[in-house]
Amino acid sequence: MEPNRSHRSEGGFASSVKHRFKRTFRNGPFLLMIWCAAILILGLGIWLIGVLGTDDGDVEDEGMADAVMSAAVQFDGGDFDALVARWNAILTGGDGADRTSDPVQRYIRRLANNVTNSSRTGVWDTMQPGNPNGPWNDLQGTNPRNMTSTFDRLRTMALAYATPGSPLYGNRELRDDIEAGLAWLASNRFYKGAQLVGNWWEWEIGSPMIVKDILVLMKDDLPAALYQSYLEALTYFVPNPARRIVNNVRETGANLADKVLIAAVSGALAGDGGRIGTAVSALAPIFEYAEEGDGFYRDGSFIQHFNVPYVGSYGIVLIESVSRLLYWLDDSPWIAEGAIPVKRIAKWWRDSFEPLMYEGAMMEMVRGRAISRAGNDAHTMGRKVRTSFLLMAELLPEETAQEIRRRLKYDYVHDTVFNNPYYG
């Protein structure tokens, strides 16, 4: 059964973006509330896909790469702008979000309160833009984790600045302080040629994942030189998503999916079609069944770190990034018809995720070390699974989509751990 492709526009990718968001929100208030939960929980929004591949066949890297690259030959500058606008809409809700709805208003209030509040505890309240040691006193020093956390606070500020309906929308003082924070990081931490000290993940995934969002949100508000320096830094820290630069290890699983997403979005920001194509092509191993080591197995297992059952941690990270990427690029030449086996994602749900979900929670036995992390409890992680697969279901074959939606709705109804099922 083929997914419904009646939404595809004859006018090309750019002309289909706005129509596509409206189509998503016509599904009713339930999906709208899930959209808002996705923004709050994940810091990103919705992600779908409209391509259908083989069900059980393996994927070959060369075939996928050929399909991606040949389809993208005629991608032009206007389409790159449309891709950037689409990622902005994923982050901020775009034109599709009903700013009068209670879930959206709650999200916006919480976002603004995290930036500034009467108690002066927001990230903007505690920021010291002119401090030569760094924008926040508690995040100084050379530990790369502090760098990532600094970028994370700046992204929160950028979201409040760029989200329509926010009381801080377009605030010039906020914009100036975001720029000041980015300028300090570009001069002192995150720049082309910087030496990678400490945990490689902060340099190659943690910070770049956040930076790409900030550049999208602030694209028209940053000085050209600062913007360009960050594009160069993203290419420096993630030159090839399939390889780790600190030791040339081949990336697998969640780490590969994350780096593919970083490379693709930064490629759109730079107007670099080759970078997007390389990133999408690098996804191929994720869709292959593993025989050993990391990846999805035919029996439904998901392994990361060579031998650890990790579907409740790294598996969730993987499906989040894959879902966002494929939704974002849907209708674009980068996702050629049949190039990616979308049915495999439905099998991931049936075989790997659904059996380990109970009333909204992801079972602890497959969450590894993540069980010790604040904010990563079983029910919060379960909501991330639900959000990803509910929205992915939009363009799966209808029978499969309805099967997934029914199961996810059951979990939303029966997950009573949080006072509010969408915000906790």
Characterization of this structure:
There is one protein chain. The chain is an all-alpha fold and 424 residues long. 53% of the residues lie in helices and 3% in strands. The chain has 15 helices and five strands. The strands form two sheets. A three-stranded antiparallel β-sheet has the order 1-2-3, with no helix packed on it. Strand 2 and strand 3 form a beta hairpin. Helix 2 packs parallel to helix 5, helix 2 (29-42) crosses helix 14 (378-392) and helix 10 (253-270) packs parallel to helix 12 (314-329). The longest helix has 19 residues, at 144-162. The chain is globular. The chain starts with 12 loop residues before the first helix and ends in a 10-residue tail after the last helix. Residues 1-11, 21-32, 37-63 and 67-73 have low confidence and may be disordered.
Quick take:
With 424 residues, the protein is an all-alpha fold.
What topology emerges from the helices and strands here?
Elements: H1 13-25, H2 29-42, H3 61-71, H4 77-92, H5 102-115, H6 144-162, H7 172-188, H8 200-217, H9 224-237, H10 253-270, H11 273-281, E1 295-296, E2 302-304, E3 308-309, H12 314-329, H13 342-353, E4 357-358, E5 361-362, H14 378-392, H15 398-414
Antiparallel strand pairs: 1-2, 2-3, 4-5
